[in-house]
């Protein structure tokens, strides 16, 4: 069972209280981008076995979106943080490094 | 290979069963093979089998991280059907279903194919319209299905409650020649036949990296040493993303856990497979008498092979409403497998950006039913560079916008 803490309202809840919103920190590609970049934006997924960053929504709570850093193999949650970021904050990265030395995810490490 | 037959049973009975041989050999890997298949599940073994049988390519190794058929091949609910909407899907699933009909004879291994009929309940007006459309599409594709009325549903499944307060049964899509088979036996039968053709089935051999030179695959490094190959087939279902990463490309796939459970065995009470997509549950009775139940997939990426508990609750709640007599049943076991979901819920059987490397993945929640058809098409693709069964299932269909949308036929239940 996955237990998350909403960084917006501070409530801890199990997964039925939240709704997963898929991969986080996707770089939007629009008109003028190459076909390759637009294809990757739409379809190529990060699907790691290990450290993953996702968007979640606290649907049966405050209703706000947030980000979660999570391990897809153990369901360990490294931390949750604001949706208003383009990359994981340093303290979250440090927490992950402490648990999973040498991790990388897309261009982050 | 000694053939299995009634005479073999009699012969062995007369000598205290001392003459049975191992069904397949467990050799150490050779230095080089023409073809390496990663993944000894149903799809990987079927690919190897048809490479040997249809295309004469027998210098083949099938490498497997765990044990043979221990992934989704041994974790599904064994349902076989081909009532899909789109033409390319109907072609490959119907090919698979027709190969299942004669598989026990082909492989000389009893896979216990039981064409008991599969029924997909329509419980809303939208579903009625959707299944009528599917029945018409199937008629054009030569797949034998029809839409049946509630009275016929009740005749086929006496234990069903037609007037559930929330979701009454308004009819069903019925495929009489669909059914079930013994999933382990499918993997074992193919492994035995592959081994008999001189192929090496190598278990507990995890691929750790894929070697390439000048954009062409040259071999794999494994926990049992490094092995060279001319062609490589990646057939690893839930872990496709992990292995594709070793080969240097990304896939339009996300991996989630899907789970199933079985009840204690009871006397025969239902001799068809019933699927109820609106309420997210499906059920059949195994030959041992257990009610085999499958439900929804998790809503987020994971590789845990167990699944979230609340999905069991949802599935069982829905089935109790449709089959009130199961409300007192005890559940014996629950398990999960990692399924590889594509955006259009159709598989990928394709060449890849790496020359000589082919991939067969994306079967999502419904790969078991497709095993022989998938192996047939994948083998042709690997041997000849293209196959009429797999052409539409290219990895590049997403770029071209040529989706094969099966979210209705495949969205939940398999």
Write the layout of secondary structure elements.
The complex is a heterodimer of chains A (109) and B (414).
Chain A: E1 3-5, E2 12-14, E3 19-23, H1 35-42, E4 51-57, E5 65-71, E6 77-82, H2 90-99
Antiparallel strand pairs in A: 1-2, 3-4, 4-5, 5-6
Chain B: H1 6-13, E1 32-38, H2 42-55, E2 60-63, E3 79-80, H3 87-101, H4 103-107, E4 118-122, H5 125-141, E5 146-148, H6 150-156, E6 171-175, E7 179-180, H7 183-196, E8 200-202, E9 207-213, E10 216-222, E11 225-234, H8 240-247, E12 253-265, E13 273-276, E14 281-285, E15 290-297, H9 309-322, E16 331-342, E17 348-351, E18 357-361, H10 371-384, H11 397-400, H12 407-410
Parallel strand pairs in B: 1-2, 1-11, 2-8, 4-13, 11-18
Antiparallel strand pairs in B: 3-7, 4-6, 5-6, 9-10, 10-11, 12-15, 12-16, 13-14, 14-15, 17-18
Helix pairs in contact in B: 2-7, 2-10, 3-10
Protein name (chain B): Sarcosine oxidase subunit beta family protein
Protein name (chain A): Sarcosine oxidase subunit delta
Number of helices of chain B: 12
Shape summary of chain A: globular
Mean of pLDDT of chain B: 94
CATH topology term of the largest domain in chain B: FAD/NAD(P)-binding domain
Uncertain spans of chain A: none
Q: Main beta sheet of chain B: strand number and arrangement?
A: 8 strands, mixed
Number of helices of chain A: 2
Named CATH architecture of chain A: 2-Layer Sandwich
Count of individual domains of chain A = 1
| Reported CATH architecture of the largest domain in chain B | 3-Layer(bba) Sandwich
Number of distinct beta strands of chain B = 18
SSE string of chain A, helix = H, strand = E? EEEHEEEH
Radius of gyration of chain A: 14 Å
For the terminal residues of chain A, how far apart are their CA atoms? Answer: 27 Å
